[in-house]
Amino acid sequence: MATLQKIRSKGPLLLIVIGFALFAFIATDAWRIFRPQMSQDVGEINGKSIPIQQYQDLIEEYTDVVKLTSGMTTLTEEQTNQIKDEAWRNYINNKLVEDQAQKIGLTVTKEEIQSIINEGSHPLLMQTPFYNPQTGTFDQDGLKKVLADYARYTQSGIYTPEIEYYGMLARYWNFIEKNLIQTRLAEKYQALISQSLKSNPVEAGITFDGRVNQSDVLLAAIPYSSVPDSLIRLKESELKSLYNKKKEQFRRYAETRNIKYVDVQVTPSEEDRAALQSEMVEYTEQLHNTHTDYTNFIRSTASDYPYVDLYYTRNAFPADVAARLDSTSVGEVYGPYYNAADNTFNTFKIVSKAHMPDSVEVRQFMVIESDLIRQQAVADSVLAVLKAGADFEEVAQAYGQNGESRWISSQDYEGAELSGDDVKFIHTLSSLNTREIGSLSLIQGPVIMQVLNKKSNQEKYKVAVIKRTVEYSKATYDRMYNEFSQFIAANPTIDQLTANAEEAGYRLLERNDLYSSEHMIGGVRGTKDALRWVFTAKPGEVSNLYEVGDANDRLFVVALSAIHKEGYTPLSEVQQQLKAELIRDKKAEKIIADMKASGATSFEQYKNMENAVSDSIRMVTFSALAYVSVLRSSEPLVGAYASVAELNQLSRPIQGNSGVMVLQVYGREKLNDTFDVTTEKETLGDTQARMASRYINDLYLKAKVKDNRYLFF
After folding, report:
1. CB 222 within 8 A of CB 591
2. Which of 400, 406, 446, 639 could form a disulfide with 367 if both were Cys (CB 3.0 to 4.6 A apart)?
3. Residues 596-610: what's their mean pLDDT?
C-alpha cells in the first residue's frame, strides 16, 4: 500500500501539473445520476453533439483518479462544481485541438509516447508513484511490475484485496498514458502556431531600449473631475457613432439573463431563543448536581462541544469558555450566558485542574500472539521482564517493532475526535512517571509503554461544557414559509414583486448577465433548480418558492427581467459606459481649448493654471506603465512620450486617462545593462509563445460551442 500512499501524497501537485500540461478531464460522482439509456446531449461543438453517456464515461474514469490521488470519498458542493467546470472546459479544449490536428494530419504515434516514457522526465511522469527521485527518472520496471502483478491476480480468478489495489494502479496508469497523448498533441499543435511568430534584431533592440532607458518627467495636469458634468452636452448621434465603433467589444458569445430575486434566511425567533435559554437553565442546575460520568451527561444535553475525560490546555476549549476559566473555581458552574460570536447559550463547570507536562516522550510496542486468550498473560510476563531490567528495544524487536521513542504533545490530540482507546492511551501516558513502564489493554491488543521524558509544564483543565446554538424551531420555519409563500402568491409578476418587496420587509436583489453555466444564484447553495427555471422562463415571470441553502434554511424566489440573446449587446444597455467615455473626451477637448487660450508656453505657467495639479515622476520607461499619484491613475502616454521627447522640451497638451497633461523630460539615464540580441530575441520568443497559447480562445469562438449541462444537473 506504500505506492497508494505515495500517489495520495502527490495528488494535489499531480492535478496542478495536469491542469497546466493538458486539458484534463476531472470527475465527479454527481454525473452517476445519468442512466445509460438517456439520449439527451449535454452540448455541441463544431456541429457535433456531446452525448451524456460519452461525457459520463469520461467523468467516471476521472472520478476514480481523483479519489485515488486525494483519498477523498465525498466532495463538497464547491469542489463538485469546480470539478464539473474543469471537466467541461478541458473536454472542449481537447476536442478543439483534436479537430484541428486531424485537419492538418497532425498525430501522436505510439513510438513518441514510448520515447517520452523511456526518457522519463515529462512532468506527468515525474509526479507519479513510479518516479524514482534517486535516479531522477521514471521507473519503468516498477510500472511493469505493477501491471504484471495485476494481470497475474486477475488471471487467478480469485478475489483478493490485492486485485482491487493493483486494479486502481492499473487504471491510474491508463489515465496517465491517455493524458500523455493529449498533452503531446497539444504541445505539437501549439509549437506549430508559435513558429508563426518570430522576433528580429530590430524589435529586440527597440525592446531593450524601452526597458533600460529611463526618464525623469515633470507633469502638470488638469483633472477631468475639475469640469462639471453639467457643462457637457451629448448628442444621440455621438452615442450611436461610438457604439458602432466599439461594437465588437459588446458582443455576447453566450445567452444570459437579468434577474431579480429575494433570498430569505430563516432565523430563530425570540420564542426559540427563550425556549433554549429556559432549557439551559435546567441543564445548569443538573450540572451543579452532577459529579460523575460527565461524558454521558454532556452528551445528553446535545452540546456542540463534547466532554472528554482528559486534561486539556485552555486553547482546546471554545474561546468564550477559555476567557472565563481564570475567573471560575474548580467545581463551580459558570452560566448560563449568551455568546454572540457563535450565537450560542453556554454553561460550563471546571471539573478539575492540574499543573502538568504538555509534552511526553514515550516508546511503546504491541504484544501480538496468535492466541488472543494468551495475549494478556504474555503481556503481563513481558511487563515483569522489563521492570526487572530487560532492554526495552530488544524486547520490542522480538515482536517485530523497533520501540523507538516519540514526543506526544497536547496539539497532537486536542480538538480531535477521540475513541475510547485513544482516551485510555493518553490517560495512561499522562499518569506514568518518568522512566516508568506500564501496560495498556486496547482493542487491537496489549501495549507496553515507557515514559522517557516530560517537559513544558502548564495549567490544564477538565471542563464540562454545554454549548448550544440558538436554532429556529419548526414552528418558526413554518411561519416564515407561510408568510413568504403568501407574499409570492400576492405578487405573481415582476412589477408587483419589485413594487411591494420592500414594504413587505423583503430585500429585492438584482443580478445581470447570469450564465447557464453557473451553479448557483447569489452565492446561495441549492439554487440549481431556480437557475434552471430562469433559463426556461419568460421575461416578467416569477418562480415558485424554493427551499434552498445548506440545510434548506433559506427561502428563495426569482423573477426574470430580461433575456440577452447571443450577439451584440443593445446600445441601451451600454449607453452609460459610452456616455462616460464621451463625457471624458469632451472634457478633454474643453480643457485643451482652455490651455491653448491661456497662452501658456512654459511648464510653470501650466502648473499655475486654475485646477492644475503637478508631479515629478522618476525612472519612467516605455516598457512599464507610469502611475501618476496626483491623478490617481496609470497613464501609458507618459512613458510613450518620455521615450521619444527631447530633453527639457515641453509637450503639447496630451489627453490621458484621468486628465489633460503637459510633460517635460528633465533627466535621462541608462541602466547598466548590455544588449545581447540573442537574449532579447529569446525573451520576445517567450512572450510570443504565451500569445500563441491563446489560440484556444479563437478556436472556441469558431466552434460555436453550446453548453446545455444546466438542463441535466
Report:
1. yes
2. 446
3. 94
Q: How many CB atoms lie within 10 A of CB 519?
A: 18
634: β partners: 627
| 3 state SS for 639-683 | HHHHHHCCCCCECCCEECCCEEEEEEEEEEEECCCCCCHHHHHHH
pLDDT(136) > 80: no
All three cell numbers of 589, joined, read 477637448
- C-alpha cell, 243: 457604439
pLDDT in tens, 680-696: 888 877 777 777 677 88
Of 366, 456, 452, the residue nearest 405 (C-alpha): 452
Q: Which residues contact 126 (CB under 8 A, 6 or more apart)?
A: 138
217: left (phi over 0), alpha (psi -120 to 50) or beta: beta
Helix, strand or coil, per DSSP, at residue 150: helix
- Give the tens place of pLDDT for each residue, 209-223: 888 899 999 999 999
Cα dihedral 188, 26, 125, 195, rounded to 10, equals: 20
Q: Which of 318, 710, 259 is nearest to 529 (CA)?
A: 710
pTM of the model: 0.71
DSSP assignment of 28-51 equals -GGGGGS-TT---EEEEETTEEEE
Cα distances from 69 to residues 81, 125, 165, in angstroms, run: 19, 14, 13
Q: What's the pLDDT at 376?
A: 82
Overall average pLDDT of the 526-534 stretch: 95
**HSE value, Cβ hemisphere, 13 Å, CA-based, for 420:** 5
**Mean pLDDT, rounded, of the chain:** 87
Statement: residue 36 has pLDDT above 60:
no
| High-pLDDT (> 70) share of the chain, % | 94
Residue pLDDT, tens place only, 168-217: 888 888 888 888 999 999 989 988 888 777 788 888 888 888 888 999 99
